[in-house]
Design goal:
single chain; alpha+beta; 2 domains; nine-stranded mixed sheet; 27% helix; disordered N terminus; disordered C terminus
């Protein structure tokens, strides 16, 4: 028995034939420092279809302000997680200590995966090894899984699982048999590319109205992206 939380109607019991928690997800949550597991969710593509996912995104909610951010990075450092590499040097921590503890090659990734969204920051990458997929540890200011999903740009990926194996959805989540909807725009080009990737990954027909809406928006530099130009 598992529970889907819609965010409006409350928890709804849903029978499942399989273990409510994927064993790979169990191992992923076990990687996190214990004190952060309860506020973490696996969300996005891996939560929708693990077999088609390119990686596993683990969001740790409630990381607000520099102090909590620092505590989280310190906890990750002290956990000595094999193959973990921070996206940037931890703030106010000695870089040499970081590299020695993690035991990495010292190669630090150059850019965050969500540079346009101040509420979401990719902290570190982990080589999935036996799990088969790389893992991204992402800190977010959103207080819970529902708030996080309400910030997602494409409806198909607005799905998450928490440590207990409870699936989380929002009213705007769409299934793999429904046309994807654009819920938020985190950079016109980025959202347009993600919308296309999701349609291709799950063999879904795009919504022409959504494409027109995206293509007629202005990009961050104010350049008109109207689809009628250069045709």
């Amino acid at each position: 028995m598992s529970c889907i939380w819609t965010g409006l109607k409350g928890p709804v019991q849903k029978e499942k034939d399989t273990d409510p928690m994927n064993p790979i997800f169990k191992r992923v949550f076990a990687i996190l420092p214990k004190q952060y597991r309860a506020q973490a969710v696996i969300a996005g593509g891996a939560a929708v279809n693990l077999e088609l996912a390119k990686d596993i995104d683990v969001f740790v909610c409630g990381i607000t302000g520099s102090t909590l951010h620092e505590m989280f990075v310190t906890a990750l450092t002290d956990a000595k997680i094999p193959s973990l590499v921070f996206r940037e040097y931890p703030p106010n921590l000695n870089a040499k200590r970081h590299i020695e503890i993690i035991g990495s090659t010292g190669q630090i990734a150059q850019a965050a995966i969500y540079p346009s969204n101040e509420s979401i920051e990719c902290i570190a990458d982990i080589d999935g090894g036996a799990l088969g997929l790389p893992i991204q540890i992402i800190a977010t200011k959103y207080s819970n899984g529902i708030d996080l999903l309400n910030s997602f740009d494409v409806s198909t990926h607005a799905v998450a699982f928490n440590e207990q194996g409870i699936q989380i959805q929002i009213p705007n989540t769409t299934s793999l048999t429904e046309t994807p909807k654009v819920l938020n725009v985190h950079g016109v080009i980025r959202t347009l590319i993600r919308y296309r990737k999701i349609c291709l990954r799950y063999n879904l027909a795009p919504d022409p109205a959504e494409l027109v809406r995206l293509c007629t928006m202005k990009d961050p530099d104010g350049v008109d992206m109207a689809i009628t130009k250069n045709v």
